[in-house]
Specification:
With 230 residues, the chain is of the alpha+beta class. The protein has one domain. Helices cover 21% and strands 34% of the residues. The strands form four sheets. The chain has a six-stranded antiparallel β-sheet with strand order 5-6-7-8-9-10.
């Protein structure tokens, strides 16, 4: 009986040790678990494969202008990019809280090289095998006025022009490969999914370089949020 009990303890503690030393999920593992819309690049869901010491994107290989994917499992960072007649980029970065929760930042940027550009950011957290949105919780609210160049701080434009500025204002959140600081820049451009706004609007946005300030957001692992660096 004592021998049976000893064997049982070995299995019990052996299982506990195994659970404690189970490998952490890498950003590549988490990417594979994302919903398709967050793995979409160049209008199709994509995957990442590691073969013979090299990462690849099988669905992207024959696309014009596609660059070799950057998959940095050590630093928790992925970048997919394409250029040629414009550019498209998707970045994914892993941010970890002090209590070991994983939060993924997912950035998308598209510029057709002429009349439109589009930037978006979303943050997701995985709990109990389900992804949930946390963008509004982890990001501070930023307004276009915080990015205006100093000479535009006073009212310079007529109301119609100000409406164009506020309508086409966008923020681009560049995710870090190294460190945990997100750099936020502002720009004005019609979104590539919108209808063409006309030459007058395009020319106005091209000729008026309104935004010059970059805002830096630092990850606070204890609070699980980004805080603006003064």
């Amino acid at each position: 009986m004592r021998r049976i009990a000893t064997i049982a303890l070995v299995f019990l503690f052996g299982g506990a040790i195994y659970a404690q030393t189970a490998p952490k999920m890498t950003i590549a593992d988490l990417f594979a678990l994302l919903p398709e819309k967050h793995r979409t690049f160049l209008d199709a869901p994509v995957s990442l494969k590691y073969v013979v010491g090299k990462w690849s994107c099988p669905e992207c290989g024959d696309r014009y202008g596609f660059s070799e994917p950057v998959v940095d499992t050590k630093n928790g960072y992925i970048r997919l990019s394409q250029s040629g007649g414009g550019s498209t980029e998707r970045e994914i970065a892993l941010f970890t809280t002090q209590d070991k929760r994983n939060i993924l930042g997912i950035r998308y940027y598209e510029n057709n090289g002429a009349n439109c550009a589009e930037a978006s950011i979303v943050f997701l957290e995985r709990a109990a095998d389900v992804w949930g949105g946390s963008t509004g919780r982890v990001l501070p609210k930023l307004e276009y006025g915080q990015f205006l160049k100093k000479q535009y701080a006073s009212k310079k434009f007529i109301d119609r022009e100000m409406k164009m500025i506020t309508k086409y204002f966008q923020l681009d959140y560049a995710l870090p490969r190294y460190g945990t600081v997100v750099k936020v820049t502002a720009f004005t451009a019609p979104r590539c999914t919108d209808s063409y706004p006309g030459e007058e609007v395009i020319n106005f946005l091209r000729e008026n370089d309104l935004f010059g300030t970059t805002r830096n957001l630092a990850w606070d692992a204890g609070a699980g949020v980004f805080k603006e660096i003064p």
